[in-house]
C-alpha cells in the first residue's frame, strides 16, 4: 500500500572531495522533496538558482563538527555558510539529486 505524503522528506549524504593529505568527509542533510514543477523552474546553470533550490529544500544538517570536534547544531546561519561555499554547495546539490534519484527508482 502507498501512503501519500503531503510533504515528503528524505536524508542525503553530502560527500566532500578530500582536502590535500586528508580523507574525504561527509555530512547529512534532510531535504524536502520539491514538487517537480517547482524543481523544474530552477535554472541549474545559474548558481543563484542552485542556492535558492537548496534553501527551499534543506531543513536540517547533521554530522557537522567545529574545530574543537563539538557538534554544530542546525541553524539558518549554518545552512547559509555551507551554501556560500562552492564545495559544500555542490556536495549538497549532488546529495539531493542522487538521493531522490535512488528513491524514484524504488517507486
Alpha plus pi helix count: 4
Global geometry: globular
Our estimate of the beta-strand percent is: 15-25%
The residue ranges in which pLDDT falls below 50 over 5 or more consecutive positions are none
Structural class: alpha+beta
Q: Can you give the mean pLDDT?
A: 93
Query: N-to-C SSE series?
Result: EEHHEHH
| Number of individual domains | 1
Distance between the termini: 12 Å
Major sheet description: 3 strands, antiparallel
Please list the strands of the largest sheet in the order they lie side by side.
1-2-3
The percentage helix is 40-55%
Radius of gyration: 15 Å
Number of strands: 3
Q: Descriptors for this entry?
A:
alpha+beta, three-stranded antiparallel sheet
Describe the protein's architecture and organization:
The protein is an alpha+beta fold. It has one domain (27-106). The protein is 42% helix and 20% strand. The protein has four helices and three strands. It has helices spanning 36-40, 47-57, 76-83, 86-106, and strands at 9-16, 25-32, 58-62. The protein has a three-stranded antiparallel sheet. The mean pLDDT is 93. Residues 1-22 are annotated as: Disordered.
Amino acid at each position: 500500500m502507498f501512503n501519500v505524503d503531503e510533504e515528503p522528506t528524505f536524508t542525503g549524504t553530502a560527500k566532500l572531495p578530500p582536502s590535500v593529505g586528508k580523507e574525504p568527509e561527509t555530512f547529512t542533510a534532510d531535504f524536502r522533496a520539491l514538487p517537480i514543477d517547482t524543481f523544474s523552474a530552477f535554472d541549474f546553470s545559474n548558481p543563484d538558482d542552485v542556492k535558492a533550490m537548496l534553501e527551499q529544500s534543506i531543513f536540517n544538517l547533521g554530522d557537522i563538527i567545529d574545530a574543537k570536534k563539538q557538534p554544530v547544531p542546525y541553524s539558518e546561519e549554518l545552512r547559509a555558510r555551507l551554501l556560500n561555499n562552492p564545495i559544500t554547495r555542490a556536495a549538497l546539490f549532488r546529495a539531493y539529486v542522487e538521493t531522490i534519484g535512488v528513491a524514484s527508482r524504488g517507486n
